Amino acid sequence: MDAETFREYCLKLPNTREAMPFEGFFHHSRSILVFYVKDKMFCFFDIDRFDSCTIKCSVNQIEELKDRYSAVGNPFNLSPKHWISIQLNADMPAELVMELVKSSYLLVAEGLARKTKEK
């Protein structure tokens, strides 16, 4: 899997946009590409390295994924209760990575829908 294929997959999800919000803030974060549904992020990765991605994950899945795949670990600078980091091209099949990205998108989109209903 390459960065452009991954990027195109993320952008095909409804109401998704991309941005580089950390550009200029921190030296090591200037190449972080973030994908949003509406105004909430669901996935990001470093376009210069493309060795891992960080996604939101169901609380019920996190420990199981960590136990099963060495590619799954704690995210940098986000809550490990709700987010995971996945090493790409490791022991997790690319198809499963894409499924988890879509699940991340759905988790965030569902959260937005609940908030809209509550208003």
Provide the fold topology.
Blueprint: H1 3-11, E1 16-19, E2 32-37, E3 40-46, E4 52-56, H2 59-68, E5 72-73, E6 83-87, H3 94-118
Antiparallel strand pairs: 1-2, 2-3, 3-4, 4-6, 5-6
Word description of this protein:
The chain has 119 residues and is of the alpha+beta class. It is built from 3 helices and 6 strands, in the order αββββαββα. It has helices at 3-11, 59-68, 94-118, and strands spanning 16-19, 32-37, 40-46, 52-56, 72-73, 83-87. The protein has a 6-stranded antiparallel beta sheet. The longest helix is centred in the C-terminal third of the chain and has 25 residues, at 94-118. The relative contact order is 0.17.
3D shape: globular
How are the strands of the biggest sheet laid out side by side? 1-2-3-4-6-5
Overall pLDDT score: 92
Query: What is the string of helix and strand elements?
Result: HEEEEHEEH
How do you describe this structure in short?
With 119 residues, the protein is an alpha+beta fold. The protein contains 3 helices and 6 strands; from the N terminus they run αββββαββα.
